[in-house]
């Protein structure tokens, strides 16, 4: 219902606005176009938060709506509708503006020459020739409003029967699925990582000490003749690695790091030396 109402209202509001932007020669036109495009770049939660503040009784606008008109927009369907109008405005105005700009000016001039008013020209001449733009704007607005989440959640909350829209209802249904329930996912993700218990949304882990690494002693002394850009040189490396010991191998390009690793892996035959694991060659 929200998407349908928003689409109809934006057709009525966006059509004259798009017509004015398409035919305006004012210096303020770029500013107006930028304001219309703001919902495209602002995060939905930011728009919803600003509207929530604007409609509250702490602002002049909110006090006027509540005290003078008796209209409270926060956490009501009219508030969601206003938020949807603001959030989906560029999706209606921009296609219609492009449609008006693509129409040849001769259509308008011919209608004016025949004595037609601006309203008659718009309704009987221009709109029938821009049906693709109207359809494009209506479809984009409806789909965008149907899927909006952040704005409606900030303004309307999630009140069943009052402000719960399709996107929030779908999210609630997804959260209720056992296979992807957050608590179940957290438990499965934490399994085997020392999870002691899950309290609310807080994971409590107990520290696990890793057993000492066991393994053979690796002892090697390898040599290899290298041919580098700086000239021939000999790689000569001797090292003894204890069980669990970590060694970092670093050096400039051409120092022989890759060659040493290939010799240890058995991919390159060394010119001399030995490699012993647990005392065995």
TrEMBL record:
InterPro entries: ABC_transporter-like_ATP-bd, MetI-like, MetI-like_sf, ModB_ABC, P-loop_NTPase. Keywords: Cell membrane, Membrane, Molybdenum, Signal, Transmembrane, Transmembrane helix, Transport. PROSITE patterns: ABC_TM1. The chain crosses the membrane at residues 73-93, 133-155. One of its GO terms (cellular component) is plasma membrane. It comes from the Eukaryota. GO terms for molecular function: ATP binding; ATP hydrolysis activity; molybdate ion transmembrane transporter activity. PANTHER family: MOLYBDENUM TRANSPORT SYSTEM PERMEASE (PTHR30183:SF8), MOLYBDENUM TRANSPORT SYSTEM PERMEASE PROTEIN MODB (PTHR30183). This is Probable transport protein, chloroplastic.
């Amino acid at each position: 219902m929200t998407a349908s109402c928003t689409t109809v209202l934006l057709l009525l509001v966006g059509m004259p606005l798009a017509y004015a932007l398409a035919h305006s020669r004012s210096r303020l036109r770029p500013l107006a176009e930028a304001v219309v495009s703001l919902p495209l770049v602002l995060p939905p939660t930011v728009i919803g938060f600003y509207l929530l503040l604007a409609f509250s009784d702490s602002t002049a606008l909110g006090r006027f709506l509540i005290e003078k008109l008796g209209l409270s927009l926060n956490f009501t369907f009219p508030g969601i509708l206003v938020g949807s109008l603001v959030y989906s405005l560029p999706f209606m105005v921009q296609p219609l503006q492009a449609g008006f700009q693509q129409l040849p000016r001769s259509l308008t001039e011919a209608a004016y020459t025949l004595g037609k008013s601006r309203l008659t020209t718009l309704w009987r001449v221009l709109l029938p020739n821009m049906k693709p733009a109207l359809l494009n704007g209506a479809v984009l607005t409806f789909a965008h409003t149907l899927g909006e989440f952040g704005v409606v959640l900030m303004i309307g909350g999630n009140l069943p029967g009052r402000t719960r829209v399709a996107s929030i209802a779908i999210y609630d249904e997804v959260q209720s699925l056992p296979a992807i329930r957050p608590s179940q996912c957290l438990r499965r993700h934490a399994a085997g990582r020392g999870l002691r218990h899950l309290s609310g949304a807080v994971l409590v882990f107990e520290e696990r000490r890793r057993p000492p690494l066991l393994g053979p002693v690796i002892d090697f002394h390898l040599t290899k003749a290298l041919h580098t850009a700086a000239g021939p040189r000999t790689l000569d490396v001797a090292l003894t690695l204890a069980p669990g010991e970590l060694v970092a191998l670093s050096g400039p390009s051409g120092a022989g790091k890759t060659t040493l690793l290939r010799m240890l892996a058995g991919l390159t035959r060394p010119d001399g030396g030995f490699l012993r694991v647990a005392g065995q060659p």
